[in-house]
Design brief:
With about 300 residues, this protein is α/β, with parallel strands linked by helices. The chain contains nine helices and twelve strands.
Length: about 300
């Protein structure tokens, strides 16, 4: 059975759920006791081996959602649950160290803006998750094998020959691919990707799509990616469309058609909400939606 906002195909219905979100909201407090309600009730179930894409206009809350699912941010209300081999774990009940451990052990994250360390080489950036997971003695002992893996991953994204460079000397698309290699370093079960091909030309982007397909098919890595790229979204067995902080029950094709006609998805606007006690006037800038980035 499909939940609202889902266009789902190609995943065994009986695969176990690995990640779920229930009525997740996220509001940001603004000045003058107002707040911006970004996520307004997100429900999501991701099954093992599933490939899920999330599309939606700029500023709708896609990165906000991914950060919450990736335990980098906390929902204002609602529940995020990871179903790990040891049993279900609720995000809300974790302390910072436990959140970091789950991120490091089970998740890979490709950030929208990469977040590579500028002062170390590309190779060391890719090795970083492995370094964090180990004591320094163990890391030193295993360094040779880990370096081989990091170089293999850099090879998969076509950048092994750039491994000694600093990220600052690479193009945006090359940095994005380093971020993909780094996300794979610890063999994550779930990969959360925020516009992983947003900076790539059609051909390189196709190569990354094929890499994701292979990882999904052969290693059963579960993917959840935010994308503006219709050809990547189409590869996902499950396609979500976010409108006004919720998943909307439209198919991807319908969403793309509307978007290209400049209808509905473009006009869905973030709204400000005043706490009941606030008596002041609304901020006209925010009412016009200028608090949100424009595409
Ligand atoms: N710390 C914050 N304080 C206030 N508002 C924030 C904060 N972080 C994000 N927002 C707002 O929340 C909204 C959603 O942001 P988000 O980054 O999730 O959008 P997005 O869907 O990923 O957009 P894009 O496609 O442009 O990346 C935006 O209007 C943004 O300005
Ligand atoms: Mg974003």
């Amino acid at each position: 059975m499909s939940s609202p906002g889902t266009d789902r195909s190609g995943i065994e219905a009986e695969a176990p759920i690995v990640l779920s979100a229930e009525s997740v909201t996220r509001s940001y407090p603004l000045a003058d006791r107002r707040r911006l309600d970004v996520l307004r009730g997100i429900d999501l179930e991701v099954r093992e081996g599933e490939m899920v894409s999330v599309m939606g206009m700029s500023g709708v809350g896609k990165s906000t959602l991914l950060n919450i699912l990736g335990l980098l941010d906390t929902a204002t209300a609602g529940e995020v649950t990871y179903h790990l081999p040891g049993g279900p774990v609720r995000a809300r009940e974790l302390d910072e160290a436990e959140r970091a451990e789950i991120r490091n052990e089970h998740l890979g994250f490709v950030f929208q803006f990469y977040h590579l360390l500028p002062d170390v080489s590309v190779l060391d950036n890719v090795l970083l998750p492995a370094m964090i997971r180990r004591s320094s003695a163990r890391y030193r002992r295993e360094r040779r094998t880990l370096t081989e893996r990091a170089r293999h991953l850099l090879g998969l994204v076509g950048l092994d020959d750039r491994r000694r460079q600093r990220p600052g000397t690479l193009s945006g698309g090359e940095r994005q691919r380093v971020a993909i290699a780094r996300a794979l370093m610890n063999e994550p079960r779930i990969l959360l990707c925020d516009e992983p091909t947003g900076n790539l030309d059609v051909r390189t982007s196709e190569a990354m799509h094929s890499l994701f397909d292979t990882l999904n098919r052969e290693e059963r890595i579960t993917f959840l990616f935010v994308t503006h790229d219709p050809s990547l979204a189409r590869r996902a067995g499950t396609r979500k469309v976010m409108v006004d902080g919720r998943f909307e029950a439209v198919s991807l094709e319908e969403a793309l058609a509307r978007n290209s006609r400049g209808e509905e998805l473009e006009t869905a606007e973030l709204k400000t909400a005043e706490p009941e006690t606030a008596e002041g006037a609304r901020d006209p800038d925010l009412e016009r939606g200028e608090g949100a980035a424009t595409p």
